[in-house]
């Protein structure tokens, strides 16, 4: 593993997250094992051979067996490898990084509106059907929360029960590198479904994590994916072997959240704030959004799934 551990030390010095560093280690190690040669002597044929290997390799995600990695995973591999070669350049071990040129030719896919590499968008009615399919309070609460908040998978998993404030109908979003705004809101539908879930969670939880695994500890990184794709497959909107627009994953809930807020007329800057995105113009740093104005806009525009009466009845039965 030539220069790998020096590269990982460099990642730590640059302040990369432990998850990013771990992913880089896994991907670069896989690459170095496969090429089985001095990485400074890499040729385009080696990169093409590794690409062919990734496209045909067998592996498991959660309980699903797969053949060939997804395009996003291919890009993640070559992003990690490129970062590794950038480090070798920084250390004057090599003169140039061969990966950008390779990625431009073999991995760049132009976005296609409504094409195969467009993330799937479902209607509010379809999301309602998806949530109603869920057979347990955890699945129902997680899918509802993801659809109504647009949180990324890592943000969902990192939440603790202490991040919820039912009295103010809001929650605190865990600090992440991509996240700017850390305040989120809940409507009455979300609160009722979460309360039902917390009643179910209480005797099972073994730590403070909001979303728990079957063993009572914090849900693993594949947990939201496994839950959402399970019910999406039952509904016929997820094909694990299909193109991107045939899949419905955790990130599709973020896509759903953003698009339907936009279609309902929420101002663009409010959507960016709720998503935790950085706004691009220099003047944006002076454009402070009032949290109460943002709350009112959220409650006005957030999609509703008609779950309140059903969930309130179930919650009452559970409590009494």
């Amino acid at each position: 593993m030539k220069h790998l551990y020096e590269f990982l030390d460099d990642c730590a010095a640059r302040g990369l997250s432990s998850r990013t560093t771990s992913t880089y280690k896994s991907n670069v190690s896989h690459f170095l094992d496969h090429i089985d040669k001095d990485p400074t002597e890499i040729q385009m044929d080696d990169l093409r051979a590794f690409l062919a290997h990734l496209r045909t390799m067998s592996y498991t995600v959660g309980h699903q067996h797969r053949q060939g990695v997804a395009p996003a995973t291919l890009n993640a591999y070559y992003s990690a490898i490129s970062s590794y070669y950038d480090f070798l350049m920084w250390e004057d071990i090599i003169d140039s990084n061969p990966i950008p040129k390779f990625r431009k030719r073999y991995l760049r896919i132009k976005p296609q509106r409504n094409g195969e590499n467009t993330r799937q968008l479902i209607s509010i009615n379809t999301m309602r059907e998806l949530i109603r399919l869920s057979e347990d309070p955890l699945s129902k609460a997680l899918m509802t929360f993801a659809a109504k908040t647009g949180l990324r998978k890592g943000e969902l998993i990192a939440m603790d029960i202490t991040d919820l404030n039912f009295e103010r109908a809001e929650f605190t979003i865990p600090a992440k590198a991509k996240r700017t705004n850390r305040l989120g809101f809940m409507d009455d539908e979300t609160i009722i479904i979460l309360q039902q879930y917390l009643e179910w969670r209480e005797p099972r939880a073994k730590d403070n994590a909001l979303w728990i695994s079957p063993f009572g500890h914090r849900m693993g990184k594949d947990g939201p994916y496994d839950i959402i794709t399970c019910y999406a497959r039952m509904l016929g909107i997820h094909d694990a072997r299909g193109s991107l627009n045939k899949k419905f994953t955790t990130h599709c809930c973020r896509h759903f959240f953003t698009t339907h807020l936009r279609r309902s007329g929420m101002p663009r800057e409010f959507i960016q704030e709720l998503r935790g995105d950085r706004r691009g113009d220099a003047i944006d740093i002076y454009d402070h959004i009032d949290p109460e104005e943002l709350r009112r806009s959220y409650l006005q525009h957030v999609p509703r799934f008609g779950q309140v009466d059903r969930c309130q009845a179930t919650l009452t039965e559970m409590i009494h």
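Residues 313-320 have pLDDT under 50 and may be disordered. The CA atoms of residues 192 and 312 lie 6 Å apart.
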